[in-house]
């Protein structure tokens, strides 16, 4: 038996099951939707939307989050390898790296570079005429910078995750806890106002959390496909960050949500 119909869609009677199917299709198509938005779209109360989302969440169709819902696929426990990510949105990452390079400090300062394919592109843009102390947990970045005479390099110790080629573990976290750096460039798999920065792996999240905590100024480098995504392990609230450098495909709504939390959003040009 279907439930009692309600008015919606310009006054047409709609059964709850029909509305729930429409809500599921909308959230999956958009990537997420808020309770308020859905209530306005289907001309029902926010309480009705929350009940619909609860039904869809129990059915495994959607995942409820604070203020709305996201597709089930938006929460990941599996992450792609460095090789797979290297070829993904390469032009966007190059543009982001060039825009983020404007935040490199002057000679004598300290820089922290998180592991990642965008930060690796950023490392290649370090000014050769500036003497900087660079700290990283990335094996590829360390290999790239080891031969540069202007760079004093410190590599964080610990276990190397083969999937991301990043050092993780208590040793890396403890080392970061004793440091203070001028600027940290951080990557993330997910970015939302509610969940902050997130990543699928708790060990990487612990290191990233320590990185954010030891920096005077935090620059997040991430392409727009990461914005609006929420991964398993959150490691930094938006309020603890200073700048997000991303590409022009970030939605106006996502940009407004992040700006409202006090985060400066810099849009890189030339990613086409």
Main attributes?
alpha/beta, Arc Repressor Mutant, subunit A, Rossmann fold, seven-stranded parallel beta sheet, three-stranded antiparallel beta sheet, 10 helices
| Count of runs of 4 or more consecutive helical residues | 10
| Residues in helix, % | 25-40%
Largest sheet: 7 strands, parallel
Through-space gap between termini: 51 Å
Shape: elongated
**Rg, Å, rounded:** 21 Å
Oligomer: single chain
Any idea of the CATH topology of the largest domain? Answer: Rossmann fold
- The run of helices and strands is EEHEHHEEHHEHEHEEEHEEEHEEEHE
Which residue ranges are poorly predicted, with pLDDT under 50 across at least 5 consecutive positions?
7-11
The pLDDT mean sits at 88
Under the CATH scheme, the architecture of the largest domain is 3-Layer(aba) Sandwich
Strand % is: 25-35%
Under CATH at level 1, the class of the largest domain stands as Alpha Beta
- Give the number of DSSP strands: 17
Question: Order of strands across the widest beta sheet?
Answer: 8-7-6-11-14-16-17
Total number of domains: 2
Structural class: alpha/beta
């Amino acid at each position: 038996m279907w439930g009692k119909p309600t008015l919606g869609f310009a006054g047409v009677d709609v059964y709850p099951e029909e509305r729930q199917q429409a809500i599921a299709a909308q959230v999956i198509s958009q990537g997420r939707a808020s309770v308020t938005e859905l209530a306005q779209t289907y001309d029902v109360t926010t309480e009705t939307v929350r009940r619909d989302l609860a039904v869809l969440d129990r059915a495994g169709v959607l995942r409820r989050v604070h203020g709305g819902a996201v597709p089930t696929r938006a929460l990941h426990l599996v992450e792609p390898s460095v090789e797979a990510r290297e070829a993904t949105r390469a032009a966007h990452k190059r543009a982001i790296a060039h825009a983020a390079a404007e935040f490199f400090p002057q000679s004598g300062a300290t820089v922290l570079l998180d592991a990642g394919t965008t930060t690796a592109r950023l490392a290649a843009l370090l000014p050769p005429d500036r003497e900087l102390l660079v700290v990283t947990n990335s094996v590829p970045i360390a290999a790239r910078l080891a031969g540069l005479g202007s760079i004093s390099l410190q590599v964080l110790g610990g276990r190397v995750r083969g999937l991301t080629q990043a050092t993780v573990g208590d040793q890396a976290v403890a080392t970061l806890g004793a440091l203070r750096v001028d600027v940290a460039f951080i990557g993330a798999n997910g970015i939302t106002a509610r969940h902050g920065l997130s990543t699928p792996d708790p060990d990487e999240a612990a290191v990233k959390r320590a990185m954010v905590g030891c920096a005077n100024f935090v620059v997040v480098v991430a392409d727009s496909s990461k914005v609006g995504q929420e991964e398993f392990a959150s490691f930094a609230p938006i309020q603890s960050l200073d700048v997000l450098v991303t590409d022009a495909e970030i939605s106006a709504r996502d940009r407004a949500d992040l700006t409202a939390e006090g985060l400066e959003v810099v849009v890189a040009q030339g990613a086409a």
